[in-house]
Design brief:
Layout: H1 2-23, E1 39-43, H2 48-59, E2 63-68, H3 71-85, E3 90-94, H4 100-113, E4 119-122, E5 126-128, H5 139-154, H6 156-162, E6 168-173, H7 195-219, E7 225-231, E8 240-241, H8 247-257, H9 263-266, H10 268-275, E9 285-288, E10 291-293, H11 302-316
Parallel strand pairs: 1-2, 1-4, 2-3, 4-6, 5-8, 6-7, 7-9
Antiparallel strand pairs: 9-10
Helix pairs in contact: 2-3, 4-5, 5-7, 7-11
């Protein structure tokens, strides 16, 4: 009996150690680099991973602009970022990634008012929201993929000009959930009617983020602009859900929260891709746990990447620059 208790105790201690050091805690990226004189644009920079990323980059001296639909929440976040970082060069701009007109207005205002753009971090994302956009797309797909695609291209001219004098990095937050994203282009233009469909379209949007990153990298040859698809890990965050997500999702979220990391760990791979001196040689790839990671074979098909690009251009063409 004593021996069984001893074995159980050892296993419990081992599990506790593993849980705390490999599940609840992740790698921390450290650097001595300064970002004084650099401009960073972060979508969804008012909560969760985006807010922590904004704080860490502001600490390094960057001018940080957080773009979000909820200006009131962003103003509160701005004050907190300034307090945490000691950097007063933090600003708020309104941006609704689910509204192409809002994205175009934002890009025009940004291009007019901001001289530089060294880092574009497409951080904003949603998980389980219902409804369709005015232009006939699933809202999850619109916010997670189409919006970032359009925003990036509307700011591309500024970034290309910037790259002549200073390198530019584009970071697209994705998710390991891409593994559940078998493409169904019809679903991109339909409302979600179940939790299963929510996760399916979410996975597709994250897979689209990965293909967008790799395809964009190919199209930016000749410019000092690099691209990165970043999986932040399983993180406690206010990932967009409807106000009433339903009891199943609510319970699932409460259970999963116990296993999720704090937002500070979710920001580390983004910081690595933004700041590391050697990562530029790995442009266009997928990263997690502050290192480049391999993708499943279905996420590396050039033909699929081109098809997604063409479909995305088709959806956003009325707002895109003519040269895309």
């Amino acid at each position: 009996m004593f021996q069984k208790k001893y074995i159980f105790l050892v296993l419990a201690v081992f599990f506790a150690y593993y849980f705390m050091n490999y599940i609840k805690i992740g790698p921390i990226y450290k650097t001595n680099k300064r970002l004084d004189g650099k401009t960073v644009l972060i979508t969804g920079g008012n909560i969760g991973i985006g807010k922590v990323t904004a704080i860490e980059l502001a600490k390094l001296g960057a001018k940080v602009i957080i773009a979000s639909r909820n200006v009131q929440r962003s103003q509160k976040a701005k004050d907190e970022i300034i307090k945490e970082s000691g950097n007063k060069n933090v600003h708020v701009m309104k941006l609704d990634l689910g509204d192409f007109s809002s994205i175009k207005s934002f890009a025009e205002k940004f291009s007019k008012e901001e001289k530089n753009l060294h880092y574009l971090i497409n951080n904003a994302g949603v998980l389980a929201i219902r409804g369709m956009t005015d232009y006939g797309c699933n809202r999850i797909m619109a916010i997670n993929h189409f919006g970032s695609f359009l925003l990036t291209h509307l700011l591309m001219d500024k970034m290309k000009k910037q790259s002549k004098t200073s390198p530019v990095r584009i970071i697209n937050l994705t998710s390991a959930g891409y593994a559940f994203g078998a493409f169904d282009l019809d679903q991109w233009h339909q409302d979600s009617n179940s939790i299963y469909e929510d996760f399916s379209i979410y996975g597709q949007s994250k897979l689209a983020n990965i293909y967008f990153t790799s395809e964009l990298n190919k199209r930016l040859k000749g410019f000092d602009i690099t691209t990165y698809a970043v999986h932040p890990g399983g993180i406690k965050s206010e990932l967009g859900m409807d106000e009433d997500p339903g009891w199943v999702l609510y319970i699932l979220k409460q259970i999963m929260t116990f296993f999720l990391r704090e937002p500070i760990y979710g920001a580390q791979t983004t910081l690595y891709c933004a700041l590391d001196d050697n990562v530029t040689q790995l442009s266009g790839n997928y990263f997690g746990e502050t290192t480049m990671q391999d993708l499943k074979d279905f996420a590396k098909d050039d033909a699929v990447g081109q098809k997604i690009w063409q479909e995305t251009v088709k959806v956003t063409k009325d707002y895109l620059p003519k040269d895309v």
